Each structure stands twice: as structure tokens, then as C-alpha cells.
Amino acid sequence: MTGASTTDRGLPNATVARLPLYLRALTQLRATGSATCSSDQLAEATGVSSANVRKDLSHLGSHGTRGVGYDVAHLQAEIAQAIGQTQEWNVVLVGAGHLGKALAAYPGFASRGSRIVAVVDADPKRLGEQVVDGLVIESADDLDEIVRDRAVSIAILATPTHAAQDVADRLVAAGVTSILNFAPVALRVPDGVDVRQVDVAAELQILAYHEQRKSSPREEAVSG
Ligand SMILES: NC(=O)c1ccc[n+]([C@@H]2O[C@H](COP(=O)([O-])OP(=O)(O)OC[C@H]3O[C@@H](n4cnc5c(N)ncnc54)[C@H](O)[C@@H]3O)[C@@H](O)[C@H]2O)c1
């Protein structure tokens, strides 16, 4: 992600990254009828340590009540407010290939505050193809118009690497201020534009590193 380790609002980026996890856990707790929860419960549901849960929530001004814990509904509203989920954000998805289509078909974004309002592609053969109910592939030539007319502020970029910077430039010029980038390239964007890079391959490489570390003592023991 671009920018410093603290957001403009003053929350540390690591906290911001965990808030959606707490929100998801609180939504599940509320669905099962829980009115209150402890930091331990949130820790268990999210995989975050209890100490970090308490620290993160204290940044929001929530300290919980001794012996009772946190009020689930109140905390849910507070986190939703902090991460801007009290309104719906319009998203354009650029690049309707294998990955783009799979993302566009995922029904879970809307319930978490983001709505894909357009899917665009540069390949004329794909135009008009239905991706999901209510979304057909539109022309990348119309990107500027789509961003402006549909009040899009967030883009998902799923084009090949070679096209990504050009697409990002166009998105920013049209008014997009946040980009979720799947193309394996470091985008250059002006100040005020946030980029989150998703690199599943790098995540796998990190796991491979840990696998290697797990297996090497055994190998040493066998050879030694
Ligand atoms: N983050 C990860 O780990 C991860 C995993 C898979 C794929 N990827 C990346 O995601 C991107 C998409 O992968 P894919 O398998 O879906 O590729 P794909 O070739 O199936 O799809 C890419 C789509 O982008 C379209 N496109 C090309 N130039 C464009 C432009 N200028 N404007 C709009 N659309 C344009 C193409 O017509 C095509 O439909 C690639 O950059 C790939 O490397 C990343």
C-alpha cells in the first residue's frame, strides 16, 4: 500500500487492515444472537491476538466494560463508521478475463460495502457478454464516462501487466482515488491515491519459505 503507516484519520494502517476482520466476526456474533463479546472471542474469531484486539479497539475509543466485554451492536456500528461502511462505494472492475470475471461474480462484496457497478474490457469480442445478473462487459473506451457518471471511486485492476499502468493513469484522471491491483506491477500514482496490491503468488512464496524451514531440520536430521 502507498503512503505512511498511519492513515490521515490517525488510525495505524495495521489497525485499519484488521477492522474488517472484527466487523465480519461481529456480524456473525450478532447473527447468533450475542449482545456482548470479549476481546478473547474476537481474537479467536479473527486470528488476531487479544492484546492487538484491545489495542485496535481502543484507537476507536472502545474499551469495553470489565466483566461484560464489548457491546456487539455498538462496536459493529463504530467500526462500520470508521472504515466508511455506512455508505456503499461504487467499484469499476477493469479486465474481464479469468480473474476479473471470477471477482465480478463474487456476491460477497455488496454486503461489505462495495458494489461493482461496471465491468470493462478492451477486447471487443467480450463486449456485451453477461458476467453476472445486471452486469455486462462494457468497453474500456468508455472508462472515463463510466467513472464519472456512476460516481466510481474505487477500481479493481485485473488487466495484464503491460496494460496496468496505462489503465491506472486513466482511472486516476477520471477521478478514481483507490485501486485494488492484481497485476504484478508496482503502479505509480499521485499523492492522495491509495493502491492495495494483491499478490497471491507472493503469498504462496511466503508459505513455501515456511514449508522449507519446516522441512529443513528434518532433512538435516536425516543426513546427519
Ligand atoms: N495477484 C495474483 O496473485 C494474481 C493471480 C492471478 C492473476 N493475476 C494477474 O491478474 C491479471 C489478470 O489475470 P487473468 O488471468 O484474468 O488474465 P486474462 O488474460 O484472462 O484477462 C485479462 C483481461 O484484461 C483485458 N485487457 C487487456 N488490456 C486491457 C485494457 N487496457 N483495458 C481493459 N481490459 C484490458 C483482456 O482483454 C482480458 O480480458 C494479470 O495481470 C495477472 O498477472 C494476479
Description:
The protein is of the alpha/beta class. It folds into 2 domains: 13-82, Winged helix-like DNA-binding domain superfamily/Winged helix DNA-binding domain (Arc Repressor Mutant, subunit A); 89-201, Rossmann fold (3-Layer(aba) Sandwich). It has helices at 13-31, 39-46, 50-59, 72-82, 98-104, 143-149, 161-174, 200-223, and strands spanning 36-37, 70-71, 89-94, 114-121, 130-132, 135-139, 152-157, 178-181, 194-197. The strands form 2 sheets. Strands 5-6-4-3-7-8-9 form a 7-stranded mixed sheet, sandwiched between helices. β5 (130-132) and β6 (135-139) form a beta hairpin. α1 packs antiparallel against α4 (72-82) and α2 crosses α3 (50-59). The longest helix has 24 residues, at 200-223. The chain is globular and about 60 Å long. The chain starts with 12 loop residues before the first helix and ends with a helix. Bound molecules: nicotinamide-adenine-dinucleotide. Nicotinamide-adenine-dinucleotide binds next to α5, β4, α7 and α8. Belongs to the transcriptional regulatory Rex family. Homodimer. Modulates transcription in response to changes in cellular NADH/NAD(+) redox state. It is found in: Cytoplasm. Residues 84-186 form the CoA-binding domain.
